[in-house]
Amino acid sequence: MQLAPKPYVTAGIAIAGASLIAVPPVTPALPSASGVQAPAIQLTGAWEDAFNAGSANLTQLVNNYGLAPGVGFQQSLVNMVGFMQMLINDPASLTAASEQMQDNIKAVFTSWDLINADDATKAATTAFTIAADHNLLLSQIPGFLPPDIDSNLVNTVLDFMSSPLSGVIMGALGPSISPWIALSNSISDGDSFSEIIANMTGAYFNGATLNLNFLLPMINNAGLLPAPMQIDNLEFAFGGLLTGGEVAHKPWEIYDSNGDPALTVPVVGGSMINSLGINLLGVPVLGSLGFEGHAVGPMGAWLSFSELASQLLGANWNVAGDGKDAPTSPPIPPWAGVDFPTVPDDYFGGAGAGEATDFAGGDLWTQVSDAIAAFQWSDLF
Q1: Residue 319 pLDDT > 90, yes or no?
Q2: Is there a contact between 271 and 129 (Cβ–Cβ < 8 Å)?
């Protein structure tokens, strides 16, 4: 939706800039159904909250990994096995296989930072890095832009802030920053020494919230937003070591032999823009827009990229994960269904020792040389 832009200075720029220093609450919501549940221990107060939050986060991480360990690597191996079978069946298909490999590599490479990524790759990627509410935020930012702002530059910045690389950066920073945020919050709240230690420990594993409302008078009075718009709340979410994150991708569904749901596993992931928490008032037509920040930790960010890579490489396991189609059979991770290449009878022409093999009549090495020469290496970067 395009919101009347008059002489506005970019609300999107203000939001993006503020997001680099802000932080919201970290409380990832997990469904009750899960394959591995860490035990709940009876503790008191802040220690109990820290332990149970860590248990829920660890459950999400372990279940995602357990569905298909190293799924991105799994899918790359499966693809290579498939290409081998293709070449055995028809050596002349080497060019087609090379082109498919190039497309796969390019999709994964460009998804990493979303720079120069095509629309299909962006859509597949942001499902693993952006929560549903933040998709709305991103769709509204272009409507805040005045005509004299370079929209291409802004979109490039937003693409990077939505990328897996930005999520990895946030995940790497979180465990180091979150305990100090928790310390500051605890001192402000007048917590006891035991509560301070519990909150800092919990923040290391589960993340913490930095409230940036003290910046609001400066931001709102700077004329960065078109009247009567103003920011009512500003915060930023840093994850902890175990924070899995929350994204728009539908949870993974595991089904029993009858095709009935047996397990629901929320997908992990996040990004810089996904960590932003902000509430806007005076938004034309809509009135107000509020977004809670969703933090991600280091393991969640890398695990998410592995799952994304498997999809970009052609994985069709758990295809119902996009939320569009109902599952009809239990999902099978890539490596669980791999078939190693076989050769047809007389493939080697009955060649004996010292006899040359024509590989089904094709000049294989010439085709290999041609395929390497034709490979568009510059398109990968």
Answers
A1: no
A2: yes
